[in-house]
Amino acid sequence: MSNALKTRKPLIPPPVAAVMSAIVPGLGQLLSFRVRRGLLLLFSFVSIVGLFIWRLTILAHREVTFGDQFVKSFSRQPAFVIFICALVVALWVWIIVDAYKMAKGKKDKGAGIFALVLVLFFSLGWQISEINVYKMVKEFPEAWPPLSRILWPWEAAVTRDTSSVEAEAAILADDSVNPPAAPEYIEGKPYLKSTPTFGNMSTLDKKNLAVKGSVLHLEGSGFEPDTLTYIFWEDSIGNEFRPRQDGDYVSFVTDADGSFVFDLVMPYRLTPPSAVGQQIHHVHVRQTSDVGPLKASEPLKLTIVLMLETIFMGMMATFFGIILAIPLSFLAARNMMSGSWITMAIYWIIRTIFNITRSIEPMIWALIAVVWVGLGPFAGIIALTIHTIAALGKLYSESIESIDPGPIEAIQATGANKLQTIMFAVVPQMIPPFVSFTIYRWDINVRMSTVIGMVGGGGIGFLLVQYIRLLDYKSAGIAVWFIAVTVAILDYVSSKIREKFI
Question: Quick check: 5 pLDDT over 50?
Fold first, then answer.
């Protein structure tokens, strides 16, 4: 806006400007030739009111009329509704007063009114994004156990071979006809005896409350002394699970002779309709102990393998991206393509493709690539390569546009053609920024390859999301630590490489 337009006399007197802004916020400023100020206030006020109304419809989505929606929203979150309404009214009044001042020709940078606009947008954003600091603090104790396993997962990084000592007894469910006999006792072998060898399974009543089943008196001997021992239940179709009593998994410690006595309530188990005849279940008593030297666990081995896969995904994507981005960057540099309207058309086409491609995140490209070539690292490489071409092409082209024109003019003065000019005047100036951008992009690609694996693009991200879904936080923590360490090492290496070229 020109200075002459700013200093023009308002079309209307101050009271009328105030009334105009009362009817249409910002209109008084527009008629006072404060066009930018008026438009900003108008769009801000309309946006704030629109967002507020939209939020009310979300809070009371079952109500039909706006009045009912407002009342319902007020009943659910009165502090939010009152606060925003008060600020909106304050903004509306402030706009009216501001229009009066602008019509009188007073100078005001408007810091206060625009600060109020920012407060309103921030308040709406806080509500729309559902930030709840109280809930975050209150539920932190519940989040700490899995978080602590992620922060220190190294117990799961090593393992040892295991040795099991086990005995079992057959139990007839819901019948007392021809119950199984007690197992034969063999000297020196683990032994388990149940009294009786039949009983009723636990059930659920009409209110889904547990009704305890029969109590089995278990006696065992021949086990390892003073050792934690677990009970497992095998149903009539061979499915095994750990029963619970009083909310905890059933376990006990054997005495100094390796014997025990324990009363077990027969657990709840739904018998499939296809099951016919006598339903024989089995109760197992099992001790498991670690033997042999420490060795790398399966999660650690998988993490190392997929971390290497992730690094090479980033490297291959960067390599392919460089090969295609360098020639395209010269076509996207204005100073290289300003010779004719044909070259300028090519320039605009390439720049537009770069902008569109960069605006689509690698995660989206990975989803498309998975549909194209299937799950695996190849899909991740395709996704990262496409995004790398656009990103490096833009950075390279902007570096070409900012080079010193002196060497170019000197080379052209000798009669050099376009290719010779690029080779001897442009390329030497481009090596330092090209190296810097390339190394930076490699770092980005390695970090992004840990993410696109979550949508099937291969790499450690795929393993990480599987561990999280299985609630195996220690194994997930191993993957997180390897990602962090790898990125830190790559950052150090890239900084050393940049020192050599820049």
Answer: no
Distances (CA, A) of 188 to 128, 130, 192, 332: 69, 64, 13, 83
Domain residue extents for the chain: 3-131, 157-295, 298-501
Q: What is the pLDDT of residue 502?
A: 61
CA-wise closest residue to 478 among 159, 28, 18, 257: 159
For the beta carbon of residue 227, count every other beta carbon within 10 angstroms. 15
Q: Is the peptide bond before 196 cis (omega within 30 degrees of 0)?
A: yes
Nearest to 45 by CA among 100, 113, 105: 113
What are the backbone angles phi and psi of residue 303, rounded to the nearest 5°? Answer: -65, -45
Output the pTM of the full model: 0.68
CA gap 7, 386 in Å, rounded: 52
In this predicted structure, the answer to whether residue 289 has a pLDDT above a threshold of 90 is: no
Q: Distance (Å, rounded) from C-alpha 146 to C-alpha 206? A: 36
User: Which CATH number is 298-501 given?
Assistant: 1.10.3720.10
- Residue 333, helix vs strand vs coil: coil
> Domain 157-295 maps to which CATH number in 2.40.160, 2.60.40, 2.60.120, 1.10.3470?
2.60.40
Q: Is 215 left (phi over 0), alpha (psi -120 to 50) or beta?
A: beta
The number of beta carbons lying within 10 Å of the beta carbon of residue 272 is: 8
